[in-house]
Amino acid sequence: MKRSLSLLIPLLLLFATVSSYAQSRIAYLDATKLLKRLPEAVDAEARLDQMVMQWNKELSDMEADLKRKRDDYERKKLIMTDAERGAVEVDVSDLKKRVDQYRQDKYGANGELYKQQADLMKPAYEKLMKAIEEVAVEGKYDYVLDRSSKDFSMLYTNAKFDLSAQVAKKLGLETNDIFNVPLINNPLNPNKPGATNQNPNNPANSNPKQPPPGTPPPPPGGFPPGTQQPPIVH
User: Fold this and answer.
1) Which residues contact 210 (CB under 8 A, 6 or more apart)?
2) Neighbours of 187 (CB within 10 A)
């Protein structure tokens, strides 16, 4: 009897979930394909390309200078005095630190690349999200999913299904600011805090322009707070 109940309960829950969705209007779209065709996104990519090309050139020049000084030191260190060797080693070490700091400043977790991406892609995000919401409202859809995301992330949800306030009351929480920290954020909205999605197929998590070798990887789970990760289409 216990075994029968253990099998029946999950089936009832599954049936309830399916029934709930069956009463809703659900649609999907490919956000990546749409986004990559927006003029605002194309312009943002072109501007980022120019920035990254300049940064890579500056970084390459610094690394070439570092290599030259290292090679020169290796050739001459046996005939140098202790004082001369010490001075050159300090110079090489300082240059190495500057190279690493430059790479971190441009491509690191809080680097300029990610901030520029967020700023430049913001118009494209806003335009796409506005169009999605308008079409969803006009078509009376309750949910709009992104098919370019492997886990079909939500792009739009009908507010009538939001139980946050009711659950907050049930928990004895204040509801005045319950929506200021949403539990689930739109992965395409760069303005909402915490809007991250670790799926690499999600357009909100496309890789930035290719940094030079040795660049620290982006932080797991998306961009740092305040600089939500925008997609850079290829």
Assistant:
1) 52
2) 25
Tokens representing 24?
A: 């809703």
Q: Look up residue 45 and give its two tokens.
A: 């990519």
Query: Can you tell me the distance from the alpha carbon of 92 to that of 97, in angstroms, rounded to the nearest whole number?
Result: 9
Write out the H or E segment, with its range, that includes residue 138: helix 112-138
CA–CA separation, 208 vs 230, rounded Å? 9
Q: Which of 96, 106, 124 is nearest to 188 (CA)?
A: 124
Q: Is the distance from CB of 28 to CB of 144 less than 8 angstroms?
A: yes
- H/E element, 94: helix 82-107
Give the count of beta carbons closer than 10 Å to the beta carbon of residue 193: 13
Q: Which residues contact 127 (CB under 8 A, 6 or more apart)?
A: 38, 40
What's the pTM value of the predicted model, to 2 decimals? 0.59
Question: How many CA atoms are closer than 13 Å to the CA of 155, on its beta-carbon side?
Answer: 31
pLDDT, tens digit, 9 for 90 and up, residues 114-162: 999 999 999 999 999 999 999 999 999 998 988 887 776 888 888 887 7
**What are residue 116's phi and psi, to 5 degrees?**
-65, -40
